[in-house]
């Protein structure tokens, strides 16, 4: 069987730490045919580091030779590169978020439908062992109907001090679009992606604006810090469920906290660590998993799913309409903050 030819566009941090190593582990089925980056020196460095033979000088050349493309550029370029790749006949895995706006996401979906190619988004939290186990519990309806969801993606003083993460023009936002998107995506997926009907949010750009920052993840310019560093939101869904969302890169809290907690009408579920809460025989129980089937590496599982999707062996774990919903909600939280009112969807 011939190998699936994959090209990588944008070879910065996430390409070298996650996508390229994962795809190299799938060498029986995949060939990384080459890389493209606007920074040619960087592309050459990465190709020699991973012994990838080709450095493309244009994206179009890469698209002509590839069956599939992984996009790892800043958020601003996800849509235009994905659409060009799809139109050239390639399947696409885009880094998260799907794009900067819901309009761009919809244009990507239209291009994928027209080209009859696969399009997925790298929401790798879904591939964590706790997430996979939680999905099984939710699918089995063990907690009944999900009603109230608490989502926290909180880091204490960890603004990324590298790349373009604090640049609004290139990223579209800060802690919410960059980090919160993972936990939001995971929570929505676990409750079955019901339609959101109303979103209210407040974003802050304050904690990272003060001089003499204490920051664990490197240095950044507080003067040029353009994006949200703390966000709260309240979401209503068509099926009656509600979601409380709290995200930060730089919260003044004791320790980092990732929470997905779902209260259902028959029980409750916490994902990190995995626990189920329920009432039975007049008593209250909390059961925790003593062993969860291990996942070697969520990045590897994500790459494997994408390759299997391209080879028509599996359905994508992250469907495009679900990634679109995450972007719609993020956009609405930003809009709600700007307009100081709830946004009806
Ligand atoms: N899934 C995750 O947990 C995770 C983690 C980090 C980053 N990301 C996402 O990955 C993407 C890249 O982040 P990163 O940390 O690797 O950033 P980075 O700055 O380290 O790398 C980005 C690379 O893209 C290149 N580039 C910029 N514009 C380009 C263009 N138009 N065409 C081709 N190449 C271009 C840059 O030269 C750079 O080498 C972002 O969308 C980010 O949100 C995801």
TrEMBL record:
Domain (Gfo/Idh/MocA-like oxidoreductase N-terminal) ranges: 4-123
Organism: Heyndrickxia ginsengihumi
One Pfam family it belongs to: GFO_IDH_MocA
Name of the protein in its database record: Dehydrogenase
InterPro entries linked to this entry: Gfo/Idh/MocA-like_OxRdtase_N, Gfo/Idh/MocA_Oxidoreductase, GFO_IDH_MocA-like_dom, NAD(P)-bd_dom_sf
Domain GFO/IDH/MocA-like oxidoreductase, residue spans: 132-269
SUPFAM superfamilies the UniProt entry points to: Glyceraldehyde-3-phosphate dehydrogenase-like, C-terminal domain (SSF55347), NAD(P)-binding Rossmann-fold domains (SSF51735)
Domain of life according to the entry: Bacteria
């Amino acid at each position: 069987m011939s190998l699936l030819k994959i090209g990588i566009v944008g070879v910065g941090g996430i390409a070298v730490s996650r996508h390229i190593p994962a795809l190299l582990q799938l060498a029986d089925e995949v060939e990384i045919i080459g890389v493209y980056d606007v920074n040619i020196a960087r592309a050459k460095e990465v190709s020699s580091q991973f012994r990838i033979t080709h450095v493309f000088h244009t994206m179009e050349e890469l698209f002509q030779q590839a069956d599939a493309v992984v996009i790892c550029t800043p958020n601003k370029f996800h849509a235009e590169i994905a659409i060009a790749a799809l139109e050239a006949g390639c399947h696409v895995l885009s880094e998260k978020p799907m794009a900067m706006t819901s309009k761009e996401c919809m244009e990507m979906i239209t291009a994928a439908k027209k080209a009859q190619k696969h399009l997925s988004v790298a929401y790798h939290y879904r591939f964590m062992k706790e997430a996979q186990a939680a999905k099984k519990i939710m699918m089995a309806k063990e907690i009944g109907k999900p009603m109230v969801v608490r989502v926290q993606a909180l880091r204490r003083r960890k603004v990324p001090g590298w790349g373009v993460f604090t640049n609004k023009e290139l990223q579209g936002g800060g802690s919410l679009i960059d980090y919160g998107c993972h936990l939001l995506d995971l929570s929505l997926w676990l409750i079955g992606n019901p339609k959101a009907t109303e979103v209210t949010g407040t974003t802050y750009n304050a904690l990272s604006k003060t001089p003499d920052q204490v920051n664990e993840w490197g240095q950044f310019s507080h003067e040029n810090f353009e994006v949200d560093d703390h966000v709260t939101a309240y979401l209503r869904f068509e099926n009656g469920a509600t979601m409380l969302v709290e995200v930060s890169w730089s919260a003044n809290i004791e320790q980092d906290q990732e929470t997905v907690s779902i209260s259902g009408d028959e029980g409750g579920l916490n994902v990190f660590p995995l626990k189920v809460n329920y009432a039975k025989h007049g008593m209250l129980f909390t059961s925790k998993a003593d062993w969860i089937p291990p996942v070697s590496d969520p990045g590897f599982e994500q790459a494997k799913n994408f390759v299997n999707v391209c080879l028509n062996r599996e359905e994508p774990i992250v469907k495009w309409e679900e990634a679109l919903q995450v972007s719609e909600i993020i956009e609405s939280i930003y809009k709600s903050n700007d307009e100081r009112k709830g946004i009806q969807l």
